[in-house]
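Aim 2 progress update. The chain analyzed this quarter is reproduced below.
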Amino acid sequence: MANINLLPWRAERRKQREREFYMMLVSAAVGALLVFFVAMMWVQYVIDDQQARNDYLKKEIASLKEKIHEIEELDKTRADLITRKDIIEQLQSNRSQMVHLFDELVKTIPDGARLTTMKQVGDTITLEGNSESNQRVATYLHNIDLSPWLGHSDLKKTEITSDKKDGDKKLPYQFSMDVKLRKPEEQQKAQEGGASASAAPATSTPATKPTGEKK
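Predicted structure tokens:
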């Protein structure tokens, strides 16, 4: 015979669906909370990791700054040492240069001329003196230009002072000139040029036949 269900099965089914819906809703909420919690933990982990990296970079940057400061101090010390070395070398070269300078002044000045004042400013020397004639001054300029230690000479003035009260009758011409000191490399070239010129063979002249010799 047929089974007939007289219970309100539709209402029971509706309640069952409602319970299932609420359970799914609660499960979804719990799952969302879990996902949110995991996401927050992951974000916090990433933030902490990045913060650790930042701290490491800050430490390295501070260490590099200290090293850069040390390098700058070493560069300053090196620059000071180089400056001192250059000054010492310049003083040594100037010391020998002054000896050669006075020696060249004695060698280059011709007879009939004398120096009265000498003033040096940098690598320029101003010479003033008296001479017998302008020819003596020209000879002096030529000798200076040929000197390996004295450079280009520039005549500033030459005038007769014999008619003045303080004039010298024996050396009536007063002159003033500027002379450039040669640099070490220029001195070496000038010395090498002078040595090569002195070592050059002299031109030989053909021998003349004696007048009394017969053919």
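The CA atoms of residues 20 and 44 lie 35 Å apart. The chain has two domains: 29-108, 110-196. These observations will guide the mutagenesis experiments scheduled for the next reporting period.
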